Structure formats: structure tokens, C-alpha cells
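One chain given next:
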Amino acid sequence: MPGWNTQDVPDQSGRVAVVTGANSGIGFVTARELARKGARVVLACRSEARGNEAVERLRAELPEARVELGRLDLGDLASVREFAAGFPYERLDVLVDNAGLMALPYGTTVDGFETQFGVNHLGHFALTGLLLPALLAAPGARVVVVSSGMHALANIDINDLNSERRYRRWIAYARSKTANLLFTHELARRVAAHGTDLVAAAAHPGYAATNLQTTGPLAEGRPAAERLVRIANRVVAQPAEAGALPILYAATAPGVRPDSFTGPHIAMWRGTPAPSWRAPWTLNDTAGQRLWAASEELTGVTYDALKA
């Protein structure tokens, strides 16, 4: 793993991948590098216009790339179901649950869920479950859930998943990222119990310069905060190309363990991929099972293919 870089991504010829939030940032880089290695990649994006721009940008850089746009709004379960129902391939080798929102003012999704929890966790929970038959049809398929080192700020509150009692934007973000890790943990446990070779793993980009950091200040009309974030992205953060490395490693490297958590090797902040620290509560079986049950109830998506 030391020094692992994009040139170390194994050949992906004949494989099919879906990357959510692939129109920019680490999602775009992940999709580009998978396509560079021969995968057929579906860029799953909320905005059709930005998604098409990303597809054209990728094709301009890699004329032989096999890429296409899939319209997906993770904040709308009807859109998630439509995407999965229209998925045109019988098998899916790599699903990268990457798209997300960070530290937004309080809001709700189309279905009434707190926005960060609804998009970052519930949308991906539903998407993965709906695509599960295609994943199980691909030997050695991977599900990579993108979390964050910021998960360490807060455990989930199973009795207030939608932050209805009190909303603090950074705590809500941290809880959604803890939910990502608990989802990965419980999915890996269920896959192992079922005896299939699907690998569910998690990764995080460290501090990578993307538009994720500016979304909150823009939504609130705070130009000074937005300028500070942009300065920090230029001075302190690593580029999106580096931030995508742990995700690419988890998605493609041989020997990735189920329920592993990969991030940058320097203080979980920057550098090449390495095993990353995670809070103990993200490995709690009971919490994972309770979150799973709540997620099934909230989304109406059940993972029937993993049931005995």
C-alpha cells in the first residue's frame, strides 16, 4: 500500500462501475481513473447539465472511455428507484457511494428526511439495496462507501436520526458519516453470513479541495466564509486527484478486506492510501443492526437477496 497511486489501479476491462456524485471533485477523478483502466462507468449525477458536462470533459481527456450519464437524485427516493430500475447492465462490479453534502443549514429531502442524513446515508442505503442483485451477479464485486474522518465528532442518535430535536450542522454531518461506516459494517456482516464474495468497504479522502466545503456558505449567503474556505482549499487541502486515491484503492486493489476503512496516511489528512482509524462506535454490531432496521423502514428498501 505505501506509495500506491493511480498507475497501480488494476486493469478494469470488462467491468461495470457506478460512481455517485461523479460530476466533480473526487467522484469525477474516481470515475475518470476507472474509465482510464477500461471500466464502463456510469456517472450518477443529480444535475443532468453538470453530469453531461462531466461526461464530455472525460471523453475529451480519454477519447476511448466508455462512460455515460445516469440521472440520480439521492435526496429523492423516487429518483433512486428510477435509476436502479433503469440500470441497463445485468452485473455491477463496482459501486462507489460517493456523493454527499456537508454542514448545510437545516433542510429536508423530498421525502422529509434531514438533508445530510437523507442524502449521505439513506439515499445510498436505498441505492445499494436496489442494485444488490446486479452486484451479486458480478464475482468479487465491491461496494465502497465514502465516509469522512469527521465522523469522529458524533455517534448517531438512533432516537433522533433526522435531528428533529436539535440541529447542529457539523454534528448532523458527523452523524451521517458515522451512519456510512455503520452501514458498511452491517453490510459486510450480512454479506459474510450469506457466504457471498461481495466486498463492502469504506474510504475517505482526507482534506481534499472540492466544492463540498463551499456548499454550506453558498447556501447561507456567507461570502466571507466562502472566501475563507476557498483560501484553505488552495493552501492546506490536497487536490481532488490525491483525495480520490483511498477510494480507488478500496474499489480496485487486491486483498481489500471487508469493512476496512482506507484514508490518507498522513494524519488522516493527506498522502497515499493507508488503513485509517475509526471511532469504536462504528464497529458496534447492535448499533449497525438498529440503524439498518430503521433505514429499511424509512426507505422501504429491503436487502432480500441477503436473507436466508
Summary: The first helix runs from residue 25 to 36. Confidence is low (pLDDT under 50) at residues 224-236.
